[in-house]
Amino acid sequence: MTSLIKKIALGTTMLASAISFGAKAQNNMDDVTIEVQELRGGIYALFGRGGNIGASIGEDGIFLIDDQFAPLTDKIKAALAGISDQPVKFVINTHWHGDHTGGNENLGKEGSIIVAHDNVRVRMKASDMDRVAKGEMDMIRKDALPVITFNDELSFHLNGTEARSIHISNAHTDGDSIIHFAEYNIVHMGDTFFNGRFPFIDVNSGGSVDGALNAIDAVLTLSNDDTMIIPGHGPIANKGDLQAYRDMIQTVRDRVAEMKGNGMSLEQVNAAGPANDYAEKWSWNFISAERFVGAIYSSL
Ligand SMILES: [Zn+2]
Q: Which residue among 1, 40, 210, 280 is the one 20 to 30 A from 122 at the CA level?
């Protein structure tokens, strides 16, 4: 291993800007460096700003999982050029958020085929139409939209192996996919896993705490102690990291469910602090204990 694993631990400030996928986060990316970490079997993780990228490299071309922000496309391509002379043939988006799909338009215009769950296309198109209506954009970004969408599962047979994309309903959003390279025991979880941090459950995009737990259980079921997990944010994880994340979410979820079941308002629940004992270890500047609890409360 060379100097590949530098700067993999992302700072919380960086993560916050990664999550706020508005125009502000699109600016000032000059300071971002794309770091490449080789996993195994021609599969890599790329870390820059925004959601972690997965890449399968081989004779059939580059298969990319997520593409961060539009201003980073050239840097991402330069990083990929260091490990492959092939073009990006396919991109799959793990969900619709802009820190995972921002590079779609650039790559789509260059001929990459964009693939995602049905609801990713629906939400991306609706968001663009909303911005057109508000005068923030002239027209929708047609080349950014997935051209192949699926409902349940989809397999890619590329670079001598199979990557299975599995939809988990109503987890981080209503369009999440996890991508499993069974032969190499690697999973990309998108934002169904924030390694070491409270989850962002985007209830406004159809996310829910129970779906988030289902996504984790699906990955735990296909994992063993040798599994390498690419989270949406944070460093590469193992099964134990994911289990700890699950235990934390389940505990807080059950506390909130009991309180809500007893008729407590969200304000009363937050006053009781059901996630407070986890806050020191897991909170970050985008998701406080209160925000985590609020997402659980509203999705139950
Ligand atoms: Zn997300």
A: 210
